[in-house]
Amino acid sequence: MIDAADREIEPVNAYLRDRTLGDASPLTCRSYGFDLLRWYRVLWALDVGWEQVTEAEVVALVGWLRAARNPQRQRTRAVHQAGTVNPQTGKPTLRSGYSPATIAHNLSVVHGFYAFHMHFGRGPVLNPVPENRARRAALSHRSPIESRAQHRRGRLRPKVPVRQPRALPDEQWDVLFEQMKCARDRALLSCYVTSGARASELLGVQLGDIDWQKGQLWVISKGTRARQPVPVSPEALAYLAAYLDESGLPEMAVPIWRTRRGESRPLTYWAARRIIQRADEKLGMNWTLHDLRHTAATRLARDPELTLVEVQTILRHAHITTTSLYTVVGLEDLVDKLAEHYSRPVQPVAWPTQYAADDIQAVFGAGK
Fold first, then answer.
1. What is the pTM of this model?
2. Rounded distance, CA 368 to CA 350, Å?
3. What is the pLDDT at residue 368?
4. Distance CA 94, CA 357 (A)
5. Under a CB-based contact definition with an 8 Å cutoff, are residues 361 and 367 in contact?
């Protein structure tokens, strides 16, 4: 990371090098770098050196994050107002500011940054980010199959809501898929919704990673960074074959997903996300690229022929508790059953025949 004068910010780079040596992924280090850049911009605005900070500067950071607008969430073609619920999908539209999860992550990164330097005797005497000892005690030595212990939030920590996964209903998936006008986009979405692969994993697939006979793709897993297989449907492979036949076979060492305009380049995450956004703008929806993984996981988890452990293997979840989130039934899944319930006449109260009517009248005040 460099400052406005193109000078290296050595304290930050030393911390990021330590994270890299600790086997943190490049994407994790990139995320940490942006969080620390945001922290340093607050310090530059307050004219405070990184070694002289106190809790007051952390308060300023949290206050700014709660009030500022997130530039990544500013949409010039937004169909619905930020923070409202989309009437078609039932998903809330992202608010214009920074989410509580972003604020909590930024605080954790700043805390880790100062904990690293305090280990070597650098920086302030006390960590400027308040610690939450109750949380550390509640999460220490906890089995993943046990229920999460309750603990109080640390000071300045926002309340992060637990978000339930949202899957595309079949009819909305069909409408969204119809908006894909080229072979590449149809193949890409089909592979996403049948494999359950993450966005970055699927975009890195190369020609040698396609196993046509077994019906699977080899991806570099986001968590373990190991090369692992993911299944795809025969229909997705047919779309993929049509795309490769139309665009031509790429070289063996480059990703198969390429741009369609200008010089052929690998398709980035932002370009793939824009494919969904263009379709959403036409349909008035707000589905995202990651919702396709939720859709695949929900379809697998609700298949009576697949066990939860098998679904965990397909999705490559570290803990089965993560897989079990996709078994939760939402209200939109009960529309037909609720319609039948409301159409049925109200059933009269029936008491077991072994009880005398006089006893029921005396206890409950009613004889029927």
1. 0.79
2. 7
3. 47
4. 58
5. yes
